[in-house]
Design a protein that fits this description.
Elements lengths: L1 E4 L4 E3 L7 E5 L4 E6 L2 H10 L1 E6 L2 E5 L2 H9 L11 H4 L7 H15 L6 E4 L5 H13 L3 E5 L4 E5 L3 H11 L2
Parallel strand pairs: 1-3
Antiparallel strand pairs: 1-2, 3-4, 4-6, 5-6, 7-9, 8-9
Length: 169
Amino acid sequence: MAIQSRKESWFIPTIADNCGFVVVETNFRMYAYSTSKLHCEILRLFSKIEYQLPNLIVGAITKESLYNAFENGITTEQQNAHPRVADKIPSVPKNVCDQIRLWESDLNRVETTPAHYYDEFPSRDVFEAACDYARDQSGLLWEDSKKMRLVVNAEIHMHMREFLRGQNK
């Protein structure tokens, strides 16, 4: 892969063989000067191809194209730079690296919701009534009808307890 920064005026070929190189610009555009089918496929993993000539492929790194690469097991930590690039930090324009890391973190983000787990209902009728009550309160997060288990948002926990106490009378 070859990297070029217009501001810093550096250009480094990062493909070890003599069949081509790739340029990554700070505007997320990629240019692959290569006739190698392997290089074409690699570029397709990372960018949305805009056009292709016999020895040039032009594409743009997009969130969607990177999600495709991530789904194929490629992560931002897997940077295989040519030894001449490894000495230069960053080997890809900093804004591109930062944005790629942000897009990857979007995929790894987990949203937590304080909740309470309920099981061991005395009967199916009580379980179904509890599910209906939680649903009516917009607090039902998950239910397993087969095993009579449910999870409700913590905000309605006290109301759910009162409701269940009334069901057991």
